[in-house]
Design the sequence.
């Protein structure tokens, strides 16, 4: 899989969970957004270590099958339930590890930025996110809607694909703003706004 900084045409998004992990693959073809595949990894009720192993194996298989140019996942966030946050962090870590081993560029995006990218609102509900994803991907009206875990993963994929398809956002990524580790990029809405303003006013600061 390519580790090039050029704009990716296919992105694998992961919505990690200790019981269910959602995934979605989207691509841009001939200027159009296209759904490639989506689904969930059902991890069962076994011990935590076994479920983490299934996440790693499942994500590794998805990377090999779909050959994305980018791997997308939400940043970690703080919650009130410490135990749940720890389990989520573990699931997130093994998914990221699978992408790192596969040499697939990793993009971490804030949850609010994902929602804003697809719905225009950083606090959108799961129903609103799913509806926006289905609209953006021209969902077949006769097809069943994606599970929430899968639609969240598709939203994460779309966020990265849409922003890296933008010259401004691509410049931001290749300049390494907020980079943490090889090939890993962290964006914030403020970063994007700053670079959008710089692109609109190239004489400023010169």
Sequence:
């Amino acid at each position: 899989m390519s580790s090039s900084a050029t704009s990716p045409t296919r992105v694998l998004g992961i919505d990690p969970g200790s019981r269910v992990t959602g995934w979605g693959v989207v691509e841009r073809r001939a200027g159009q957004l296209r759904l490639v595949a989506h689904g969930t990894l059902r991890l069962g009720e076994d011990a935590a270590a076994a479920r983490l192993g299934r996440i790693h194996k499942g994500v590794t298989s998805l990377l090999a099958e779909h050959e994305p140019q980018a791997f997308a996942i939400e940043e970690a966030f703080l919650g009130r339930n410490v135990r749940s946050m720890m389990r989520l962090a573990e699931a997130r870590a093994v998914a990221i590890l699978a992408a790192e081993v596969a040499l697939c560029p990793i993009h971490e995006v804030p949850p609010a930025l994902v929602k804003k990218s697809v719905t225009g609102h950083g606090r959108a509900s799961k129903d609103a996110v799913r509806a926006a994803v289905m609209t953006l991907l021209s969902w077949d009206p006769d097809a069943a809607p994606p599970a929430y875990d899968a639609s969240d993963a598709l939203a994460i994929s779309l966020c990265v694909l849409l922003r890296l398809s933008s010259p401004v956002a691509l410049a931001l990524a290749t300049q390494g703003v907020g980079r943490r580790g090889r090939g890993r990029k962290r964006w914030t809405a403020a970063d994007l706004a700053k670079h959008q303003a710089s692109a609109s006013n190239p004489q400023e600061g010169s």
In short: Residues 1-5, 172-183 have pLDDT under 50 and may be disordered. The chain has seven helices and six strands. Helices lie at 48-66, 82-101, 111-119, 126-136, 148-164, 167-174, 189-200.
